[in-house]
Amino acid sequence: MNMVLLTQNVSRRFKDIEALKGVSLDVAAGEKVALLGHNGAGKTTLFRVILGFLRADDGHVCINGQPPGSRLARRDVSYLPEAVAFPKMLTGREIVSFYAKLKNADADEVGSALEKVDLAEAADRRCGGYSKGMRQRLGLAQAIVGNPKLMLLDEPTSGLDPISRQRFYELIGEIAGRGTAVLLSSHGLSELELKTDRVAILRKGEVVANGSLAELQRSANLPIRIRVRSNSDHVESVHSRLGGERVNGESVEFDCPRPDKMDRLSVISQLGKAVSDVDISSPSLDEVYRYFSSDDADRGDAT
Ligand SMILES: Nc1ncnc2c1ncn2[C@@H]1O[C@H](COP(=O)(O)OP(=O)(O)O)[C@@H](O)[C@H]1O
Ligand SMILES: [Mg+2]
After folding, report:
1. Both 74 and 9 in a single domain?
2. Closest ligand by atom to 48 CA
3. Alpha carbon separation from 15 to 54, 57, 79 (Å, rounded)
């Protein structure tokens, strides 16, 4: 695979804070990778190291074979910082033109970037009047110009409503579809809505998980939840047979380790007419994220 970003064993400390501890994370051309972690996990620090704003104490970063901050690397990387603020008096077009000039991009890229992020109509209005979603899309337009090979987006969807967020991920999908490697940070798995190819979770400066959502769900190996609805006359006997908690006087719920699922279902089916329905729910994305990012998690072999 053509790796645009290679990050090997990167460490960075601020006095006694180890902001990054041996971080290794690669992103291939056309791949969308989410970097997740609580506040203070090290996401922004990693971006700043990749951009060459900060020097790593240890380890290696390479962007298309070039060191961070070098002229060639700067040409290939674009960045949407956390909480970006544009001068309110300028129009969307003026702002994107400014960034296009900084990157030596063609002037006609400005219009097409604004079009790609659905801002063509609002392009000549002052951005002070833009909604939060429009401002984030303007940030994305500024990151598109110059045809970057690697795009770094720091918490680009925090504070967006679900529709704006969904549109934002669609746009990122289109950009990656043209071969750009995208690394975006976020502080919740459910925010991602399954829109990235891979997820890396940072916890206190360390990568504690790195894989597709399905791989993360598997390696977390959290129990599934089974809810058995019974005919009300039988709830007592169903409960005594299965254990767990009684809910609403007609259901019994319990957690079940994945390997035991079929055995438990066979016990449930033996209850015959006493059972009217069965629901099985897998752990939510938030539960998987909590598992990997909490301090007391026993993560086993997660990466
Ligand atoms: N310039 C800095 N000086 C001192 N400490 C810093 C600096 N930048 C980040 N840190 C610390 O490094 C850790 C990681 O911060 P950061 O990368 O901003 O996390 P995130 O973006 O995941 O919220 C935090 O403990 C933060 O306080
Ligand atoms: Mg941050």
Report:
1. yes
2. 1
3. 14, 12, 26
Number of domains in the chain: 2
pTM: 0.87
CB 164 within 8 A of CB 123: no
Measured CA distances, 288 to 67, 158, 171, 192, 297 (Å): 35, 19, 26, 13, 11
pLDDT at 303 over 50: no
Residue predicted with more confidence, 255 or 285:
255
The CATH code of the domain that includes 276 is: 3.30.70
Ligand 1 atom nearest to CA at 48? 17
CB of residue 53 inside a 6 A radius of ligand 1: no
CB 140 within 8 A of CB 80: yes
Is 119 found in the same domain as 235?
A: no
- Smallest CA separation from ligand 1 atom 24, residue: 40
97 CA distance to ligand 2 middle (Å): 27
- Evaluate: CB of 39 within 6 angstroms of ligand 1: yes
